[in-house]
């Protein structure tokens, strides 16, 4: 099974660098379809994420930290996805 996440490139997170996710003790292949930013994020949101990292995680990195450089292997889609999940701030297109 292949799960495709559709996400705004500007908001990619570290957890997205994995080739597979474990679902019910099974590794499931994941791929990403990058989109443009639909709606600007509220001012100060990134600062809140940074504050959370400092206070709650004592500065340690975590999978929700921003992905600075998107690896090449995340740039291409391998095959038609069985499941598509939209990680955006607006509704998915009708396709």
Topology:
Layout: E1 2-8, E2 20-23, E3 26-35, H1 45-56, E4 83-87
Parallel strand pairs: 1-3, 1-4
Antiparallel strand pairs: 2-3
Write structural notes for this entry:
Helices cover 13% and strands 27% of the residues. With 95 residues, the chain is α/β, with parallel strands linked by helices. Strands 2-3-1-4 form a four-stranded mixed β-sheet, with no helix packed on it.
Helix count from the secondary structure assignment: 1
Report the sheet with the most strands, covering strand number, pairing sense and barrel closure.
4 strands, mixed
Q: What is the molecular shape? A: globular
Sketch the topology as an H/E string, one letter per element.
EEEHE
Radius of gyration: 15 Å
Task: Describe the structure in brief.
The protein is of the alpha/beta class. The chain is built from 1 helix and 4 strands, in the order E-E-E-H-E.
Key terms:
4 strands; 4-stranded mixed β-sheet; globular; 13% helix; single chain; alpha/beta; 95 residues
